[in-house]
Specification:
Elements (H helix, E strand, L loop, with lengths): L1 H19 L15 E2 L27 E2 L10 E4 L6 H8 L3 H7 L12 E4 L4 E5 L6 H8 L3 H7 L12 E5 L31 E3 L2 E2 L14 E2 L2 E4 L5 E3 L4 E8 L5 E7 L4 E10 L6 E2 L4 E5 L9 E8 L2 E3 L8
Antiparallel strand pairs: 1-2, 3-4, 5-6, 7-10, 8-9, 10-17, 11-16, 12-13, 12-15, 13-14, 14-16, 14-17, 17-18
Helix pairs in contact: 4-5
């Protein structure tokens, strides 16, 4: 009988230690192993006897397993940028998609500056600063989560939110966030870009080029700031990712173009179009038609120029799912 009470007392110590912030290693590890599973021994043979059943004095009825995996951190991560840091290097070091960095830091501009602070989510999702008019219900609809998830994860009991409050909103990366309308932003390929002309071949890549028609950029005499997809004149163009139309119409060498700021804060530019079918302010879902292929602006034939800008800097948009 003393054996059972001794083991039960160790379990009580372990649970009390976990609640008060101590780990199992703060206790006598020879008594309580990390993966705890209690099992009674027969009083005569000393071997395991299966379930514990010792009567009416509050003893354990079944083996008790205590998880040793730490719970998810609920606090915002504040990262101070160092010399040489890039979105990609920070993303690799912290195992976080760079889209979640831009998403949690609206208005972020590149290159990053040493000393600036970035807000990062501790779990897949986004860091949000509450604005006037925001409510748990409106944020839940925008990010595609349950209202109780927002309140529970941030330990909020009151239904009202204070302007300026910083929240972490967990978002399932396999589903992605919603548009402001409440529909899923990226139903085809959450978190990545789909091909704006499905099946189209890529005829010019991103980066330095010897093609003299391209302007200079980044110290290169000629630089292609996007990718070109070959397609017939008038072929429909769909959005590579969901977001909001932030520009539409003529724009210098882009000709007729549509600019979409996607849900993660990245800017997609669709250039040389023949016609636009959306207007500024429209919410756009991934795969939705936004216009037709053309050859306007600085172009020598019908094709689509797709440009991706991250923090105001042209970035390689590939791979494109479905091209």
């Amino acid at each position: 009988m003393r054996r059972y009470r001794f083991v039960s007392h160790a379990v009580v110590l372990l649970i009390a230690g976990m609640i008060s912030g101590y780990s199992a290693v703060d206790l006598n590890t020879s008594m309580v192993p990390r993966a705890v599973s209690l099992q009674a021994e027969a009083s005569t043979g000393g071997g395991p006897s299966g379930d514990v059943a010792l009567g009416r004095d509050g003893t354990i009825i079944k083996p008790l397993s205590i998880p040793t995996t730490p719970l998810a951190n609920h606090k915002v991560i504040y990262y101070t940028v160092h010399n040489g840091d890039t979105l990609e290097s920070i993303a690799r070091a912290l195992s976080i998609p760079f889209r979640e960095i831009t998403w949690s830091n609206p208005g972020l501009r590149l290159p990053l500056k040493a000393g600036q602070t970035l807000k990062l989510p501790p779990v897949p999702g986004v860091v949000v600063v509450v604005k006037v008019g925001d409510s748990p219900a409106s944020l839940a609809a925008k990010y595609g989560v349950d209202e109780t998830t927002i309140l529970g994860f941030n330990h909020i009991r009151a239904p009202q939110l204070t302007s300026g409050l910083i929240l972490v909103i967990p978002v399932d990366p396999q589903i992605g966030p919603n548009l402001g309308t409440g529909v899923q932003a990226d139903p085809v390929a959450p978190g990545v870009l789909m091909c704006p002309i499905p099946g189209a071949p890529l005829i010019q890549k991103f980066g330095p080029t010897s093609f003299t028609l391209e302007p200079s950029y980044g110290g290169y005499l000629h630089f292609h700031t996007g990718v070109d997809l070959l397609a017939e004149y008038g072929a429909p163009i769909v959005a590579a990712a969901g977001g909001k139309v932030t520009a539409a119409g003529n724009a210098d060498y882009f000709g007729i173009r549509v600019e979409i700021t996607d849900i993660y804060g990245l800017v997609e530019i669709y250039a040389h179009m023949s016609e636009v079918t959306v207007k500024v302010g429209d919410p756009i879902q991934q795969g939705q038609k936004i216009g037709f292929v053309g050859s306007t602006g600085l172009s020598i034939g019908s094709h689509l120029h797709l440009q991706l800008e991250v923090g105001g800097v042209p970035t390689d948009p590939t791979p494109l799912v479905g091209c």
